[in-house]
Amino acid sequence: xxxxxxxxxxxxxxxxxxxxxxxxxxxxxxxxxxxxxxxxxxxxxxxxxxxxxxxxxxxxxxxxxxxxxxxxxxxxxxxxxxxxxxxxxxxxxxxxxxxxxxxxxxxxxxxxxxxxxxxxxxxxxxxxxxxxxxxxxxxxxxxxxxxxxxxxxxxxxxxxxxxxxxxxxxxxxxxxxxxxxxxxxxxxxxxxxxxxxxxxxxxxxxxxxxxxxxxxxxxxxxxxxxxxxxxxxxxxxxxxxxxxxxxxx
Length: 249
Description:
The structure is a single chain. The chain is α/β, with parallel strands linked by helices. The chain has a seven-stranded parallel sheet, with helices on both faces. The longest helix is centred in the middle third of the chain and has 28 residues, at 102-129. 44% of the residues lie in helices and 15% in strands. It has a single domain (8-243), classed as NAD(P)-binding Rossmann-like Domain (Rossmann fold, 3-Layer(aba) Sandwich).
């Protein structure tokens, strides 16, 4: 039996990486998918790889009006929203905290933090009306254990973990479960931003901090998100799931 059969899932940052992998995995398990990203071509390209029903919606999660439009588009198409994955993220380059520009700091705040606020404002009443739902936030292993040079990014992901727990506490009585995933770094387009110097030696040193001896993969994160979204995790809320190969131990 498909674990998400009949469910409708919105996934932000679905144009690549973790978000694209979640969309594929959720679709394989029967969900109808709303892929959201700033880059319309990226999410349209992802549609070809999905076997089930899906739509691509270009949207800017840092803007309240855009988030409202995303929710309305999803609801108009599918008539309900069961799963919200706040996966879109932004980081500054690895550098001293005093050298991060205010513009970059504002983007980190808007995309990593305020977007969750906007989506919750729009979605929580709808989920309550339909009898419940699931919210999954993508945090980071660095939200638990910051890495040097990533101060403001790490702080934003620590906020995501704390916000997840606060949301879960308040929304539990409405049958809305809220959890987050804390992945360690993956070999993606953002990896060079996380490293002070992107060299083979620096990558090897990064991997050495992970007990299981490798970086995360999009599939690792997608499988964790699938479980949290499914009824198998029906009594799990307020959890921050480490997908980090033991880094947080």
